[in-house]
Amino acid sequence: MDERQLLPLRMVSASKWSFLSEVGSKAIMPAVFLILARLLDPKSFGIVAFATLVITFAQILWDSGLSKALIQREGDIKDAANVVFFANLALGLFLYLLILFSAHKLAEGFGDPRLKTILRVQGLQMVIGSISSVQNALLQRQMDFRALFRVRMLALLLAGMAALSLALLGYGYWALVGWALVGDFTRAFYLWALSSWRPQLRFDRALAQDLWGFGGWIFLEELLAWFIVWGDSAIVGVYLGARDLGLYRTGSLIVTMILSTLLEPLVPVMFSGLSRIQGDKELFNAYVERVARFFAIVALPIGASLLVLRQTILDILLGSRWESIQPVIGAFAIATGLSYALSAFPPAFRASGRARAFAKLRVLSISYILPVYLLSIRSGLLPFLYARVAVTAFTMVLYAVAVNHCFRYGFARFFNTFSSGFAWAFALWAMTQLFHYLFGQSLLPWYQVLVVFLLLMVMGLHLLLLSKDRSFFRQVIHLSLGRV
After folding, report:
1. Scanning 99, 217, 362, 375, which has its CA 20 to 30 A from the CA of 164?
2. 96 neighbors 126 (Cβ within 8 angstroms)
3. What distance in Å separates the CA atoms of residue 122 and residue 101, rounded to the nearest whole number?
């Protein structure tokens, strides 16, 4: 069997383990996260969130897009892996030293002296991550998501145990720092144990330039993506302080954890699989459109569900000291639902070698997102949340233009991809509003969850059994679950 015939089977197997990895992680992470939210206050989450946004920015710099260039590269990749390893290690060490000596300035800028020590300790994530980046990339390239599943589960279990132990012992925000560090160290150790690849003391400069030629555009795209993902948090932290940043990031994580459980398994599989068939445009576009439709039909109704359940989430999961988080959850339910509906397209741009085009799209997005954020934050957190939803909705229009230009999708075809998702999201929201109108406050929180769950089940059964696209949705769900 050739590559084209083997690809669906390999993607099915990879999707199964990627799906199990996401389900396993979302069975562990939310439990740990919610227990920590009960034990710690919003300000503790806020100060660690600010440290995390600094670390994630530095992590993009040390990788420079080289790991994804390694995944995308065809042919013998031994020398390429060597180049990526030493480049990432050198950049990781340099950036850690930079943070080590500038931590006091960052702490002064944020207005909390505790941030200095947190940055110096949590910054070790960059060194740990750079040491294991090649092993992780090679396993993704080989679509060995079974091994990645084992690595991730062990790291999550040990990190969760460490975080809860530190919180129960009264170490406060250090529980969150320990959660990150123990997880990264365990992941790096196990990746080295599983991988047979070892670095050799040689560095091919010509090959490095070639890798940076592709990876450079991915680096730029990911750098711009950081501003889109973390830029809002940085603005909230600087203008409104640690408490509002804690509310903002926690509300975002609650929504993201739910949606990512269902959809994240397909994203790495898409990039690895599509990279192998980038020369077959017809097959490539068919896979992209198929997964995009699936993302929309899942993300948009789930986002609507979280919007109507925002008060219930507060009452059941978080408690009274998180009272101000309700509008944050509502805004992110809409914005994140829209973002995940679009998440089939970034890996398609990268896998097809159009990282440059997607980087330009990110630049264009930044040009209007940051000014809107900086203007709205001056009026407080609530206007800022409204602005967050508005810019996400407008981004769909930009995606339509970019996808039409690069993949020859018509605008009608692009928006038709999302039509069923929007229709079901509106129907679910309308039905829950009807229940609230009929029963009001007598509808207890757990009954509200049950109503939404039943409505989602009705939607799913209709799509799988009665809709004209039922065979398509079955195929995509089988791909997600790893069935043949």
Report:
1. 99
2. yes
3. 14
The structure's pTM equals 0.74
Q: Give one DSSP letter per residue of 323-354, joined into a string.
A: GGGHHHHHHHHHHHHHHHHTTTHHHHHHHTT-
What is the number of residues in the chain?
Answer: 484
- Closest by CA position to 64, among listed 121, 119, 129: 129
CA distance 468 to 209: 50
Report the run of H or E that residue 355 belongs to, with start and end. helix 355-376
- Distance from C-alpha of 446 to C-alpha of 388, rounded to nearest angstrom: 29
Q: What is the DSSP letter of 63?
A: H
Q: Judge contact between 411 and 400, C-beta under 8 A.
A: yes
Q: Are 304 and 429 in contact (CB under 8 A)?
A: yes
d(CA 381, CA 473): 39
From first to last of its 484 residues, the chain has per-residue pLDDT tens of 444 544 454 555 555 555 555 556 666 777 888 899 888 889 899 999 999 988 888 877 766 566 666 766 666 677 777 777 888 888 889 989 999 999 998 888 888 889 999 999 999 998 898 888 888 887 777 766 677 778 888 888 899 999 999 999 999 999 999 999 999 999 899 888 887 778 877 776 776 676 666 555 666 667 777 887 788 998 998 899 889 999 999 999 888 888 877 776 666 565 555 566 656 666 777 777 777 777 888 889 888 888 888 888 888 888 778 888 999 999 999 999 998 888 878 777 777 777 677 777 878 888 888 899 999 999 999 999 999 999 999 988 888 888 887 777 777 878 888 888 888 888 888 888 787 777 766 566 666 777 777 777 777 776 666 666 566 566 555 555 544 3
Residue 180 and residue 159 in contact, taking contact as beta carbons nearer than 8 Å: yes
